[in-house]
């Protein structure tokens, strides 16, 4: 009986650790004085992320702000990220996109949504949230490709972008 219990414990422990990396999340929100319509006008243009995100040098897109458009972002300091517009809704002031694996971000299977809503008391609230996996799916990820690096990088992307959006629109 002890042998069976020991074998069961070994099988259970290898099964637990063999599942691979966990899905990670990032969610950042900011309130702006600017109206939801003014903020949405800036955010919804899939071709112009560089007009409000300080890390983006330039952007090209295959089909403007139409669903299915693929944009290539040139990142200041080097690297690029290729993203695809999955959904956009003027009624909901919401934009969802995915990023191809292997770009400048230390993540894989990345999906993100930006939503603009009226804030309590006026102005607007912008929420930028995403789900993703770390880039290195191995049991012992390389430095800079672990859960902390993946989550920290995406949170920094969101906070830097949202802070600059506020700076530009809350003049």
Task: Give a structural overview.
With 171 residues, the chain is α+β, with helices and mostly antiparallel strands. The chain is built from three helices and seven strands. It has a seven-stranded antiparallel β-sheet with strand order 1-7-6-5-4-3-2. Strand 3 (70-75) and strand 4 form a beta hairpin. The protein is globular, with a radius of gyration of 20 Å.
Keywords:
171 residues; alpha+beta; globular; seven-stranded antiparallel beta sheet; disordered N terminus; 7 strands
Element-by-element helix/strand order: HEHEEEEEEH
Mean pLDDT: 90
Characterize the overall form: globular
- Main beta sheet strand tally, sense and closure: 7 strands, antiparallel
* C-alpha-based Rg, rounded: 20 Å
* Percentage of residues in helical conformation: 25-40%
With strands numbered from the N-terminus, the spatial order across the biggest sheet is 1-7-6-5-4-3-2
Number of helices: 3
Give the terminus-to-terminus CA distance. 73 Å
Structural class computed from helices and strand pairing:
alpha+beta
What is the total tally of β strands? 7
């Amino acid at each position: 009986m002890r042998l069976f219990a020991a074998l069961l414990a070994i099988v259970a422990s290898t099964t637990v650790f063999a599942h691979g990396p966990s899905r990670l999340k990032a969610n950042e929100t900011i309130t702006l004085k600017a109206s939801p319509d003014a903020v949405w006008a800036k955010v919804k243009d899939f071709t112009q992320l560089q007009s409000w995100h300080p890390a983006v040098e330039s952007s090209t897109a295959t089909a403007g702000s139409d669903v299915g458009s693929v944009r290539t972002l040139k990142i200041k300091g080097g690297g690029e990220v290729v993203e695809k517009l999955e959904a956009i809704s003027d009624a909901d002031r919401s934009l969802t996109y995915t990023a191809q694996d292997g770009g400048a971000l230390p993540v894989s299977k990345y999906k993100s949504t930006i939503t603009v809503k009226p804030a309590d008391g006026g102005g607007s609230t912008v929420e930028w949230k995403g789900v993703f996996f770390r880039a290195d799916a191995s049991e012992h990820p390389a430095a800079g490709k672990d859960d902390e690096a993946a989550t920290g990088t995406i949170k920094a992307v969101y906070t830097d972008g949202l802070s600059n959006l506020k700076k530009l629109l809350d003049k």
